[in-house]
Amino acid sequence: MLHYIKAKEALLRLRADKDGVVSFEYVIVAACIVAAVAAAFGTDATTGIGSALSSAISTIATTVTNAASA
């Protein structure tokens, strides 16, 4: 019976706590933003942001290689 009372009190405290709701809303907003960015720029290595990152990394690697051999 004691465990039931403690569980009930914990649920009542959780229900009255408003800070957790705000944090959860921020997580939902962040997930929506990530999904929108992924949809807009693409996540494939051949399109969108994947292509831009691949190109930038290749340029950096070439520059470092040329600087090391000079």
Detailed description of the structure:
By secondary structure, the chain is mainly alpha-helical. It has one domain (2-69). The chain has helices spanning 2-16, 19-41, 48-69. The longest helix is centred in the middle third of the chain and has 23 residues, at 19-41. The mean pLDDT is 79. The protein is built from 3 helices and no strands. The radius of gyration is 25 Å and the shape is elongated.
Shape: elongated
The average pLDDT score comes to 79
Give the helices and strands as they follow along the chain.
Answer: HHH
Into which percentage range does the β-strand content fall? under 5%
Q: Tell me the helix content.
A: over 70%
Topology of this structure?
Blueprint: H1 2-16, H2 19-41, H3 48-69
Structural descriptors:
single chain, 70 residues, mainly alpha
Give a nutshell description of this structure.
This protein is mainly alpha-helical and 70 residues long. It has three helices and no strands.
